[in-house]
Amino acid sequence: MPAPSARIPVKLHKHVALIRTAEPVLAEELLARKTLARMVAGRLSETVLLVHSEEEEGIIEELRRMGHTPRVVR
After folding, report:
1. Structural domain tally of the chain?
2. CB neighbours of 70 closer than 8 A, spacing ≥ 6?
3. Which residues of the chain fall short of a pLDDT of 70?
4. CA angle, corner 23, sides to 42 and 27, nearest 5?
5. Is residue 11 part of a domain?
6. pTM of the model
7. Residue 56 phi, psi (nearest 5)
8. Is 9 inside any structural domain?
């Protein structure tokens, strides 16, 4: 357990959207597609990807073309 005065490093992400997948293999599938991989800014976990906010609509369209039904929460 950290001492009460210890600092915990935190990274703040601005101007990004998140993609959360049900399974890690789905995130890998998304990253394997060149059109989607260029829109991804990073990865937070096995199932959560960071997307550049200006690419949000493009990635939603691409997911729909792939046969996925993304749920958008704003």
Report:
1. 1
2. 19, 60, 63, 64
3. 1-4
4. 30
5. no
6. 0.74
7. -55, -50
8. no
CATH of the domain at 23: 3.30.70.1220
Instruction: Note the pLDDT of residue 53.
Output: 87
Q: Which DSSP string corresponds to 20-57?
A: E-SSHHHHHHHHHSHHHHTTEEEESSSSEEEEEGGGHH
| pLDDT of amino acid 52 | 87
Domain that holds residue 34: 16-65
Cα of 46 vs its chain's centroid, Å: 10
Length of the chain: 74
φ/ψ of residue 59, rounded to 5 = -70, -35
pLDDT score recorded for residue 16: 86
